[in-house]
């Protein structure tokens, strides 16, 4: 497991809990504490089979899910917030059932690994192309112009 990034300014206690959990099994959990520059994100994401985005409640789009999708990585995620929109646009991944519990997350991880990682990679490669088109500035700009003309 790879945990990377820096804590949200309002959640230092949560980040400390994550660091302590990672320290319990340093062979299984790599903890990359600190800001990840944009140029390093693709290489970091290439080290994992999938990203787990087990949001129970989320009221906006997940930037992490977008990064996963456009960098050819599947997700193991809920459909909270804007995640359903990304799945509708082609994001590759396994759904976490609701209510979101440790068991639901574990079940989704098991289902993910019932499919060969190579198959997930093929799906993520297709998804990346779809998402890059769907989330392109050209498409966003055209949608904004169409909206403003109405």
What topology, given as strand order, has the largest sheet? 3-4-5
Task: Write down how many β-strands occur, each being a DSSP E stretch of 2 or more residues.
Answer: 5
Strand fraction equals 5-15%
Report the C-alpha radius of gyration, rounded: 17 Å
- Contiguous helical run count: 7
Q: Helix content range of the residues, please?
A: 40-55%
Number of domains: 2
CATH topological fold name of the largest domain = Rossmann fold
Task: Determine the structural class based on helices, strands and strand pairing.
Answer: mainly alpha
Structural write-up:
By secondary structure, the chain is mainly alpha-helical. It has 2 domains: 1-35, no CATH class; 45-140, 3-Layer(aba) Sandwich (Rossmann fold). It is 51% helix and 11% strand. It has helices at 12-24, 41-45, 63-70, 83-89, 102-113, 117-134, 137-149; strands spanning 2-5, 30-33, 51-53, 75-77, 93-95. The strands form 2 sheets. The protein has a 3-stranded parallel sheet with strand order 3-4-5, sandwiched between helices. Strands 1-2 form a two-stranded parallel ribbon. The chain starts with a strand and ends with a helix. The mean pLDDT is 91.
Descriptors:
Rossmann fold; 150 residues; 5 strands; 2 domains; two-stranded parallel sheet; 51% helix; single chain; 11% strand; mainly alpha
What's this entry about, in short?
By secondary structure, the protein is mainly α. The chain has helices spanning 12-24, 41-45, 63-70, 83-89, 102-113, 117-134, 137-149, and strands at residues 2-5, 30-33, 51-53, 75-77, 93-95.
